[in-house]
Amino acid sequence: xxxxxxxxxxxxKKGLKKTAERSVVLxxxxxxxxxxxxEGLLSQANKRNSKISRASAYRTINLFxxxxxxxxxxxxxxxxxxxxxxxxTHHDHMICEKCGRLIEFSDTMIEKHQRSICKRHKxxxxxxxxxxxxxxxxxx
Length: 140
Known about the structure:
Helix 2 crosses helix 3, helix 2 packs across helix 4 and helix 3 crosses helix 4. It is globular, with a radius of gyration of 17 Å. By secondary structure, it is an alpha+beta fold. Helices cover 44% and strands 16% of the residues. It contains 5 helices and 5 strands; from the N terminus they run H-H-H-H-E-E-E-E-H-E. The protein has helices spanning 3-14, 20-31, 38-48, 54-67, 108-120, and strands at residues 70-74, 80-84, 92-96, 102-105, 131-134. The strands form 2 sheets. A 3-stranded mixed β-sheet has the order 4-3-5, with no helix packed on it. The chain has a two-stranded antiparallel ribbon with strand order 1-2. It has 2 domains: 1-88, Arc Repressor Mutant, subunit A, CATH 1.10.10.10; 90-140, 2-Layer Sandwich (Dna Ligase, domain 1).
């Protein structure tokens, strides 16, 4: 299911309304390459629709995280960044605690090990998020 279908399904399930603001925010998110923060998203969305308030943008971001349309990562100082999720292949993150650099990586051995742990504990995994925090080579 694409992100528009995911949003429609989630909104119906929660008894919410499909608003023009949510559609604009979704369109903007789809066009952003890489990670973004709430303020950057709000700035981009307001270039297309000046009616979107800061509070509405933050509520929409939270709604999209809950619906699985975007994924959230926590950077240094508690700052949140997001990335568009549905069509992106799975990956994990390394986050530098000094400069905030975010490095994406994939590792089949980590994925295999997680599945093995779940099997051993008779646990059905529905997803995961791995964030390794440390100091990048540039900051060391």
